Write the structure tokens for this entry.
Amino acid sequence: MPECPHTWEMTNIRFGFVVFEKCHHCGRVRTFFTREDIALLGDKYREGTHFWSRVENAQSFRFDLRCRSCGMLEKFDDLMGLLYCTACRPECKVDILRRELEAQGTHVVLACGFLTENRRRPEQVAGHKIEMLASYFNQRRDVSRSRIAVLPFDLEDGLSHCMGEFLHDVGMISQEPPEIRKTPLWQ
Amino acid sequence: MDTRELIERLQLKQLNQFKHRSIDGVFISDMVSDTMARARPGNLWLTMQTYKSIIPAANLVDVAAVVVTSGKEVPAETVELAARYAVPLLWSELPTFELAVKLHALGIG
């Protein structure tokens, strides 16, 4: 029996927030997704040796991909978000690749897993899921004009230097306009 | 209808240079996440959101154009990013609802 070529569609869309917590004891940052109606900042609590405080939230969503042809379902609960690579430090490996790919009409998106207190980098999103995401975005578009390349975050040398643009809604529950970020994502 | 005709008929302001393309439906949202989840390729995206992340989102979804409504000022870096990626960025002083009504009258949406 021939293998299904898979035509992906987004399903089980759930809106919520990606919350960023920082421990003011060790400086570590972790993230998680919540479906709270309003994810308030400033919430503080102690967990073991950590003193967590909510320092940022971003309206976001979770989804799964399902094949319209065969019904195969893949969950993307481990995807914190997509990071659009627009420009970075000249020595950034992703940015070097981005410049090459953009010259060919391909835009670079990084699939970013959640941050945990034990790592300085986000968790990795599985390779087969990254391929599915790329297929999904390219199946929807006229690829004669441009394509999307989805890459894992592990190409990035240091998350603390990343200048990418997260596709989240930061500050949507604030009355103040978002600040223009001129620094890396995390320091 | 394509973006060229739409600009003429609704007197939209074109904020960057791009290749005109046909429009297939309208999507209205001020949230990038909502647009990423539910907008369709070829949609005209009406929004009051002007932060530069609308451009990567529009590019990823492959919308026909982004229309910033209600006369909101668009930051220069948003326009620059739209120019760099040739994402059609339009502007209208009309509130979103009024623009949507006009689009409906034109048979779009």
Remarks:
- Residues 67 and 93 of chain B are 10 Å apart (CA to CA).
- Chain B touches chain A at residues 19, 30-34, 36-38, 40-41, 51-53, 56-57, 59-62, 75, 77, 81, 84-85 (CB under 8 Å).
